[in-house]
Amino acid sequence: MPFFAGHHRLTPTSSLSATPKIRYASWSLASSDHSRSCARAWPVIRPRAKTAARERCMVREEPGNERPVYRLFWDRGSANMAPHAVLREIGCRFELIRVDISKGENRAPAYLALNPNARVPTLVHGGRVIYESAAILMYLCEAHPDAGLMPLPGDPDRGAFLQWLFWMTNTLQEDLQHWWHADNYLDGEACRHEMKIVAERRLERMFSQLDSHLAAGGPYMLGNRFSALDVFLVMLCRWTRAMALPATSYANLNRLIGLVTARPAWAAMMLAEGIDWNGPLAS
């Protein structure tokens, strides 16, 4: 059975054998304590009641335990996938806190105090709160330069890294949003259907552009150099799985997808989020 946050009873020192530095917490937003919280300190987390199907428990900090360096607020298969995988590539301590969007937890006052956009991911590091997936990637990569996941200032590859990352989050991801969430933009089924058709047509051109880039200078976006850029792109590629021409249809993109998904950090991220390439795993 794959791991889902809150599905297994954890003691303060227990963990998954493959991910000894990671802490999981399940939380409830029903308490009035949450509405009084601010972004600098996550409120007191109260365990939910046990049910026959699931047990939820809180991982408490106790003397002698190493505190997590980062807290990542996430939901299944969302834009948190890339930051989550990068945290695992870095190998630092972090805590995963699920925000179940299907239950409206992203619109609870406590979460909105952290991220007023009601989206995931959100990263908390000490007293700092960072949202937007690409921004979190840059923040993590620059905080851990020894991981080698991003060209630093002065590196000849830095310009290409920034160009492609900004293009992916501003241009490619925008049309993916139009395809998946047309109801957020337009009223009327016919209008939404037309938006999806136009978005998919644009996405095919963009993925063809990426495939040509990889053909000319792959196998990674920066040539022979693996980076967080590849992780971010493969996350976006996964969101095309239900389209007529998914990203796996392009030979060079498919090669990149294979390289990234074969990495232990990506595989561990997918297992922890309870998903595979095609969707949620059965619990």
UniProtKB/TrEMBL annotation:
Domain GST C-terminal per the UniProt entry, residue ranges: 154-281
GO molecular function: transferase activity
InterPro entries: Glutathione-S-Trfase_C-like, Glutathione-S-Trfase_C_sf, Glutathione_S-Trfase, Glutathione_S-Trfase_N, Thioredoxin-like_sf
Keyword field: Transferase
Alphabetized PROSITE patterns for the sequence: GST_CTER (PS50405), GST_NTER (PS50404)
Residue stretches making up the GST N-terminal domain: 67-148
This protein's record includes keyword Manganese: no
Segments crossing the lipid bilayer: none
Protein known as: Glutathione S-transferase family protein
Source organism per UniProt: Aestuariivirga litoralis
